[in-house]
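Batch manifest, entry 17 of 40.
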Amino acid sequence: MHVRIIDVEGTPEEIAALPQLTEVLGVALRSGSLQVCGAPGGPASARESDNAHSGLPADVLTVLRLRRPATEIYELIVSFLKEALSWPDVEARVGTSRRSDDGMANAIRLHRRGSTAGAFTYLRLPGGTTIFRLSVDFSHREVQHAKQRQVSGDAPYGLSLKLVSAAALQEALELASAACDAARLTVLEPEEAHRPVVGARMTRVRPRS
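Output type: structure tokens
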């Protein structure tokens, strides 16, 4: 076995163009295909960003890394999750999917422990769309960013909201809080667990920094 050590300095583009590197790897590297540890946007910086949000569960961080949204949406998603997971008896779950190569679903589910109503909020990735276990009629109240989903009036999940701004984040937390409070009271018989929530109230929630 022969080991050949090459010590070079330069930009990623300059290094990728080196004939010595092409000879060693046996392939020609395209410009932009080389990532350098510690470079902005490279693997190290992604890990540092994840470590900054280490208050989130490991499986949540994993799916956020694999389905990583755009930076602005990512920060809004993290703020939303950190606040929601600070509420009593709330937990996040990441499902599985046979359609994805890594076996993970494209959503994070928020559940109220002890409730039989299912998830009170779904967070879709990578787009940052939240879906709440609130009736379509709930949108007639004090909402500005949430939209009615194209579902029947008795469907459990009637509202959705995309996390695109601080104002949208604020409203998403208020809707999630209303759905969570309703789930806390929902110790139901199995046939009742799919009824839409219509009596919940929105309360002011300040996201954690």
